[in-house]
């Protein structure tokens, strides 16, 4: 009797259990199951693997616009003054040599430069150069593919709306807005405009990184008197060659010019620092010229303009390659001296937001690193250098005190500028009458 009652109770509980859930085979396969599972049933829970999270690119350094009323500033135009914040590409002084060695082994220079090229393509369409494309602007461009962006271009004052164009852009420096003006070398049609810009911006120092002729091509129209005591006039301005200093460097001439505005008789002095030995197809050797020029540029600027508010004009031929290297290196040195680290990647990326193509070749980009490392070695030893020296004599590496001697900031190297990858571009002729000739754009 007892056994019969227990069997009846078990039968009732079995009837209360819910039937097993069935899932069509097609649904199992679509959710990640397999066709080998038995009949038409499947497990109640099917575990799915979440998709991998897409890595977001690191944002570039914020950059302020060159002026409050600029028509079109870069996408990242709000924030602190240029380069006060550092990013993943910043390299500390003591690790700089080690980093360069690794980059050489892994083709890191080319990879970084290629990324800069890609980034410039992304923001390039947003930074227009419509003024340069007008008829009035186009005849003032030495090369048709090297033109001034609208948002950062220098606008000549007291000109008609369509005549205020000059192929030049403001460039922010280390914790300083409009520290430089990167410009193309003047053509015959732009000589008056060039000196108008120098006067308007109260420029005290002009850095020229090119020769008048390189090979058979004219790279710059001479805009200063040829010899001491000589005078020339361009528009309202009279320029006198006062003197040149004996600096015992055949590749570098430091000229003092006097500029007079003949409308009111006001006189100013302008230093013309002419780096002549930078070749158009490569990198100079180990001479100290580039650091001598940078040292003079900063010293003379501070002497002539105590507030350092006036920009330095830097030009080569197109105003992007060699000019870009000079400006990049000057900023990187100041970063290293003041902050103990430098961020060449973001320096170049920011330069290109102000003026397209700055530091134009991967070889020039690599040189920026090499030149900064040489500066560090000459002005304070790195940990990597100390370790190698200690190992060579079988001693333990010692701590090194890093010092910076601003009075001996000289080293040498250089790089060639090429304003376009292959092909030809159009250049204004010497008379500036709209007649054009084809020539390769070698900065």
- Series of secondary-structure elements, N-terminal to C-terminal: HHEHHHHEEEHEEEEEEEHEHEHHHEE
What overall geometry do the principal axes of the alpha carbons give?
A: globular
Number of β-strand runs:
15
In total, the number of domains comes to: 1
**How far is the first residue's CA from the last residue's CA?**
110 Å
CATH fold name: Protein-Tyrosine Phosphatase, Chain A
Give the mean pLDDT.
Answer: 75
Helix fraction by DSSP (H/I, runs of at least 4) = 25-40%
Strand content: 15-25%
* Strands in their spatial order, largest beta sheet: 2-3-4-12-5-11-10-9-8
Structural class of the helices, strands and pairings? Answer: alpha+beta
Major pleated sheet: 9 strands, mixed
Q: Give the class-level CATH name.
A: Alpha Beta
Please tell me the CATH architecture by its name.
Alpha-Beta Complex
Q: In DSSP terms, counting alpha (H) and pi (I) runs of 4 or more, how many helices? A: 12
Stretches with pLDDT under 50, minimum 5 residues: 22-72, 75-84, 382-440
CATH homologous superfamily descriptor: Protein tyrosine phosphatase superfamily
Radius of gyration from CA coordinates:
32 Å
EC number: 3.1.3.48
Protein name: protein-tyrosine-phosphatase
Biased composition (Polar residues): 28-40, 386-395
Domain Tyrosine specific protein phosphatases: 291-366
Describe the structure.
It is built from twelve helices and 15 strands. It is α+β, with helices and mostly antiparallel strands and 443 residues long. A nine-stranded mixed β-sheet has the order 2-3-4-12-5-11-10-9-8. Strands 1-13 form a two-stranded antiparallel ribbon. A hairpin with a 7-residue loop joins strand 14 and strand 15. Helix 4 runs parallel beside helix 10, helix 9 crosses helix 10 and helix 9 runs parallel beside helix 11 (362-379). The protein is globular and about 130 Å long. The termini are far apart.
């Amino acid at each position: 009797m007892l056994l019969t009652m227990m069997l009846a109770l078990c039968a009732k509980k079995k009837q209360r259990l819910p039937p097993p859930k069935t899932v069509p085979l097609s649904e199992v396969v679509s959710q990640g199951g397999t066709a080998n599972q038995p009949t038409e049933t499947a497990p109640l829970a099917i575990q799915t693997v979440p998709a991998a999270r897409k890595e977001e690119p690191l944002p570039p350094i914020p950059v302020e616009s060159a002026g409050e009323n600029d028509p079109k500033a870069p996408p990242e135009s709000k924030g602190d003054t240029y380069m006060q914040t550092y990013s993943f590409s910043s390299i500390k002084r003591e690790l700089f040599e080690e980093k360069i060695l690794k980059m050489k082994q892994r083709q890191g220079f080319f990879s970084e430069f290629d990324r800069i090229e890609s980034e410039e393509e992304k923001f390039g369409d947003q930074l227009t150069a419509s003024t340069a494309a007008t008829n009035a602007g186009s005849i003032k461009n030495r090369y048709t593919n090297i033109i001034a962006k609208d948002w950062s271009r220098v606008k000549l004052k007291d000109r008609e709306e369509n005549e205020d164009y000059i192929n030049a852009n403001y460039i922010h420096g280390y914790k300083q807005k409009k520290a430089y003006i990167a410009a193309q070398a003047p053509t015959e049609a732009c000589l008056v405009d060039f000196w108008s810009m120098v006067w308007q911006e109260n420029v005290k120092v002009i850095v020229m990184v090119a020769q008048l002729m390189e090979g058979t091509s004219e790279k710059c129209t001479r805009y200063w008197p040829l010899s001491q005591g000589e005078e020339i006039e361009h528009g309202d301005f009279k320029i006198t060659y006062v003197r040149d200093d004996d600096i015992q460097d055949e590749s570098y001439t430091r000229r003092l010019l006097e500029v007079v505005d003949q409308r009111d008789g006001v006189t100013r002095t302008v230093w013309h620092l002419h780096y002549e030995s930078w070749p158009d197809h490569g990198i100079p050797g180990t001479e100290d010229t580039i650091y001598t020029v940078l040292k003079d540029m900063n010293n003379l600027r501070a002497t002539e303009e105590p507030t350092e508010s006036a920009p330095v004009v830097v030009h080569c031929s197109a105003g992007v390659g060699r000019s870009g290297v000079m400006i990049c290196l000057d900023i990187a040195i100041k970063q290293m001296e003041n902050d103990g680290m430098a961020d060449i990647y973001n320096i170049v990326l920011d330069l290109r937001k102000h003026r397209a193509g700055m530091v134009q070749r991967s070889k020039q980009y690599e040189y920026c690193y090499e030149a900064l490392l040489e500066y560090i070695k000459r002005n304070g030893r790195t940990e990597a250098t100390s370790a190698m020296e200690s190992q060579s004599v079988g001693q333990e590496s010692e701590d090194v005190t890093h010092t910076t001697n601003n009075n001996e900031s000289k080293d040498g190297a250089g790089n060639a500028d090429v304003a376009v990858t292959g092909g030809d571009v159009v250049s204004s002729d010497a008379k500036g009458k709209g007649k054009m000739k084809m020539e390769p754009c070698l900065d």
